[in-house]
Design goal:
By secondary structure, the protein is an all-alpha fold. Helices cover 79% and strands 0% of the residues.
């Protein structure tokens, strides 16, 4: 037993997570629905990560921005990463539509269920922007409002940049120490990660079983194929702009990828993603800003889900779709993903908005929500993997710029 414990301690987090996931699949397959009884152990892990996520966003963003040598650097990185997030989300939504048009998940599918849940209102662009600014940051933190924490942290970081040097250093040190303390907490939580992830996987397999893979199989295929296409896009962009091979990038990203699949929550993966960015050699002043920002506004996987859900519903009822409508769907998905929650299953509300916007049967939401357990982890992985890819690209561009400046100085 002691030898096993020693081997376990020597294993990497990646190996431990793989073992946990495989054990979860076996438990779910053997015990079926009875495996749901152990779900609370997975919920504990999810809650622990989410507990750390909000203060981590604040400390990471504040130190990431305040640690920038000048405001020009912050502005330059901000423009780069926002442009990347905007373009990849639009591209992901378009890929979801194209793949759904090819596989046609709704053709031959008979809608028979109804949906009685609440229907969200479609926010205008200005309303969505205004809603991101908190009136009471303490109330926002109590309610777990990630978008409010994001805006507050950005403004705090910028404010520190404009303080006199001595005062700015003191405030920066406070948040830097807080980040170090949170990192220590994270190390403790990660000791439980293999168990937590394994239990969550066991719950999913036990709840739905293998028979659910035949239900709406085409719809599931649309999402899997679309995410696979986006992974190719991410690794290619990193290869071209950061000179990191796809295999190296995937290997270093595996802890975040597996945690995303297991927890199905972008917020829960945030601390792991920060560690992966560091392991890939990204600059702290870059990833401390870009990863938390992407965690809130960059959700390429959700964009795929929204556009695929729309076309699934339209095909199921035999409604012809014009090109202009498809463009509207893609841009609506971009707007909704930027303001959606970074929690497991949070996409259901935005699916409801999209389906209701175009007057399609609301029972579609019920069907998609049922399938979400089998695809949410993969979509979450797409979200977080996209954040990491953008971070590595921006960091590499900043390193090249610094190198050129040094050459000129020499």
């Amino acid at each position: 037993m002691k030898e096993l414990l020693k081997k376990w301690k020597r294993m990497s987090l990646l190996t431990k997570l793989l073992i946990g996931m495989l054990a979860g699949v076996l438990i779910g397959a053997i015990f079926g629905e009875s495996a749901q009884s152990i779900k609370p152990f997975g919920t504990i892990f999810l809650n622990l990560l989410q507990m750390i996520a909000l203060p981590l966003i604040i400390c990471s963003l504040v130190t990431g921005i305040a640690g920038v040598s000048d405001t020009k650097t912050f502005g330059r990185c901000g423009v780069k990463i926002l442009s990347y997030y905007f373009l990849t989300t639009l591209f992901a939504g378009a890929i979801g539509l194209i793949v759904a048009a090819i596989i046609r998940p709704g053709v031959g599918f008979t809608l028979s269920q109804s949906y009685d849940g609440a229907i969200g209102e479609i926010p205008s662009m200005l309303d969505a922007i205004a809603a991101m600014f908190p009136s009471n940051i303490f109330a926002s933190l109590t309610n777990g409002s990630y978008d409010h924490a994001l805006v507050f942290s950005i403004l705090m970081g910028i404010g520190i940049l404009f303080l006199p040097k001595e005062q700015g250093e003191k405030v920066y040190k406070f948040f830097e120490l807080g980040l170090a303390a949170l990192g220590s907490m994270l190390d403790i939580v990660l000791l439980y990660a293999p168990i937590g992830v394994g239990v969550l996987v066991a719950d999913c397999v036990g709840r739905y079983g293998l028979q659910f893979f035949t239900f709406a199989a085409k719809f599931l295929a649309v999402n899997y194929v679309s995410v696979a296409a986006m992974v190719v896009v991410y690794t290619t962009l990193v290869w071209i702009f950061a000179r990191k091979t796809p295999l190296l990038f995937l290997k270093k990203s595996m802890p975040a990828i597996l945690t995303a699949i297991g927890t199905q929550s972008s917020a829960a993966v945030l601390p792991i993603n920060l560690q992966c960015a560091e392991a890939l050699g990204a600059k702290k002043s870059v990833y401390g800003f870009t990863i938390p920002l992407g965690n809130q506004i960059n959700k390429d996987g959700t964009a795929i889900l929204l556009t695929a859900s729309f076309l699934f519903a339209a095909q199921a009822v035999g409604t012809p779709i014009e090109f202009g409508t498809l463009v509207q769907v893609v841009f609506l998905s971009l707007l909704l993903t930027a303001g959606s929650n970074s929690v497991a299953g949070g996409a259901v509300v935005t699916i409801t908005i999209v389906i209701n916007t175009f007057g399609l049967p609301m029972e579609t939401v019920t069907i998609v929500a049922g399938a979400l357990a089998l695809i949410d982890g993969v979509l979450t992985m797409c979200n977080t993997f996209g954040d990491l890819a953008g971070t590595i690209i921006v960091s590499a561009s900043e390193e090249r710029r610094e190198g050129k400046c040094m050459q000129k100085g020499a």
